[in-house]
Amino acid sequence: MASSLADCLDILREAHVAVDRVLLIGGGARSEALCEVLPDTLGMPVTVPEAGEYVALGAARQAAWAATEELPEWSRSVSRELFPAGDVGVQEFRRRYALARQETQAQLG
């Protein structure tokens, strides 16, 4: 899952979308394994906010923005800040994941 998220981040960057932060919410935020590997897999810090209804709040914020043409403030409390540790094993796993993806795409034609 972490490698798939990293692929999505790469696609955004290739489209010249500036990604300056990553928030980890929901079930992923409760996974110690994901919290451990995600910063190294993405190659950037990951913020874990306090648990909340962020999907619903985000949809409400977007609707308010569309209705008023003003972006509403959205406060959140940070539970944890996760930083890449330079884990070579994670980087090697990502490299292998990319090779396996390429081989699978080649087989599927």
Tell me what the structure shows:
- By secondary structure, the protein is mainly α.
- It has four helices and two strands.
- A two-stranded antiparallel sheet has the order 1-2.
- α1 (2-14) runs parallel beside α2 (32-42).
- The longest helix is centred in the C-terminal third of the chain and has 21 residues, at 88-108.
- It starts with a helix and ends with a helix.
- The mean pLDDT is 90.
Produce the secondary structure layout.
Layout: H1 2-14, H2 32-42, E1 46-49, H3 54-68, E2 78-82, H4 88-108
Antiparallel strand pairs: 1-2
What distinguishing features does this structure have?
two-stranded antiparallel sheet; 4 helices; 2 strands; 109 residues; mainly alpha
Total number of beta strands: 2
Biggest sheet record: 2 strands, antiparallel
Helix count?
4
The low-pLDDT segments are none
User: What percent of the residues sit in helical stretches (DSSP H or I)?
Assistant: 55-70%
Terminus-to-terminus distance: 23 Å
C-alpha geometry: globular
User: Reading side by side through the largest sheet, how are the strands ordered?
Assistant: 1-2
In short:
By secondary structure, the protein is mainly alpha-helical. Helices cover 55% and strands 8% of the residues.
